[in-house]
Amino acid sequence: MVCTLRDGSGLDSHRPAGDGAATPRPSNSNRQTAAAWNSRTKVSHCHGYGCSPGAGRVALGLGRMEFLGLPSHRPAISQVPLRVGTNSDWAQVAAGLRHFVALKSDGSLWAWGLNPDGQIGQPNLTTTYDAPTRIGRETNWIKISSSYFHNLALKNDHSLWAWGLNLYGQLGDGTTSNRSAPVMIGMDRDWQTIVAGGHSSYALKINGTLWGWGADFATITLAPRQIVPGTNWLAISSDAANLLIALKTDGTLWLRGRRFNLLATHVDAGGVDALAQVGLDSDWSEIYAGRDSFFARKKNGKWSVCGLNAEGQLGVGGIDVWCRHRNHCALTSSLGRSRREREPPFC
Fold it and tell me: What Å distances lie between residue 44 and 92, 288, 323, CA to CA?
């Protein structure tokens, strides 16, 4: 599912700051008119349900109503966005497996859904929060990222905070204890970008260094560590299987993760702990990770897709049953092309 931000307020964690170009939309995925979506639409990976704050309003797609923050008498499944509440001051939203986290334009932090591991930021772990519930009283939150059962957030002083499930150290606080309220991670105040993976977390610092922690392949890391050298990392994105996609300031594209071979069999990964460059192009500008797939945009505005398409997640038309178990990684501009044009590079 997809989380989008239509009014352009706030930054997501997959594109360089200041890049307001439109994100890709499969032609059959939106039943509203194109004019209803602002050209500064933003997309974030979501682990289970669709969510979209547009013009300050939160709208949601598939899922059980209590998880989506909607009354239980509403239809159990929706294929069109449904508005949550009446507020029009939402700025960012992120989705976990059965919970949501959101920021309002005043910098306050909110969440709703299931809370078994504290991911709603409330002490009662048995309650289902079926409406947005405020976390604390602070109004200095600026960025959020959610995964299956944990969340990351940044404050305006660039301090890093986390809460929720911590079985694999994905919160980064040096323990494996779950947290039902945001806790500050370390003492550094120079974090710039945050991405919550499946059972791991990744971040960029202001100086362009790349950090990770949690269930990071062969080891469990309980606190942030710099995972690769260099100060030229520009943007990152991660999927639920802890695949890491990264963009450098020189426009090159890089991958890292256990399921690497599903996406780029033609690239020598150099071991799961290393990042390997995808191709030789140096004009990539934007990246988004999905489950076993990702989208990448070049500076000329053309999009490429890469990965598995068993459920039509690539948006290239149909589910491609005839090659659903094969690799789709030509990294050529594929969105909007005809099936005949796509067949040779993809299958």
Answer: 10, 7, 27
Expressed in percent and rounded to 5, the helix, strand and coil fractions of the chain are: 5, 40, 55
Closest CA to 119 of 194, 181, 198, 183: 181
Q: What DSSP character marks residue 250?
A: T
Q: Which of 135, 241, 115, 240 is nearest to 178 (CA)?
A: 115
> Using CB atoms within 10 A of its CB, is residue 23 exposed (0-12), middle (13-18) or buried (19+)?
buried
Q: pLDDT per residue over 165-175, tens digit each?
A: 999 999 999 99
Could you read off the pLDDT of 233-266 as tens digits, one per residue? 999 998 877 788 999 999 999 988 765 555 554 4
What's the CA gap between 282 and 253, in Å, rounded? 8
Q: pTM for the whole thing?
A: 0.78
Asked which of 221-230, 281-290, 303-312 is least confident by mean pLDDT, the reply is: 303-312
Question: From the CA atom positions of the chain, what is the Rg in Å?
Answer: 19
Annotated domain spans of the chain: 2-242
Phi, psi of 339 (to 5 degrees): -60, -40
What is the CATH class of 2-242?
mainly beta
